[in-house]
Amino acid sequence: MSDQQQEVVVRRAEHADIGGLVACSSALFAEDAGARDPSINIDWPRQHGSQRFAAGIDDPNRLLLVADCHGEVVGHLVGVLGDASEMKPVKGATLVSMYVQPAFRRSQIGGRLVAEFFGWAKEAGAEAAEVTAYSSNAEAVRFYERNGFVSQSATLQTSL
Model's pTM, two decimal places? Predict the structure, then answer.
């Protein structure tokens, strides 16, 4: 176990973590969507993240986790529960977003965040979990596959 992993605590987000959640979300948007999808507003986390995260912390159908290193948010995960429907009669959980600062990657923090997400989803009665990643982000796709996700569909897009 690396020293960084021992110093990082994965826990539920609190209102005091909102600034760190916004910072991590902003970094995720800039690094991932900003490099891959010109239609995304990469300023969204700075413009709307505080309100969204504040509401999510108190929502029992949402999970907001932080990776905390001595009081600094160095990573996050956001998950949401979805109800079963007539078309899809399985309660599911979606991993909406996840980010770990580059200096803390490759020390199993991402895996710990995903494991906590899976535990929360199972406890809430979810039978399946899903995540979306840009297909051009091969590193993220490999990470999710190592953590048990398998490709189920592909979204194809063209500019008009």
Answer: 0.92
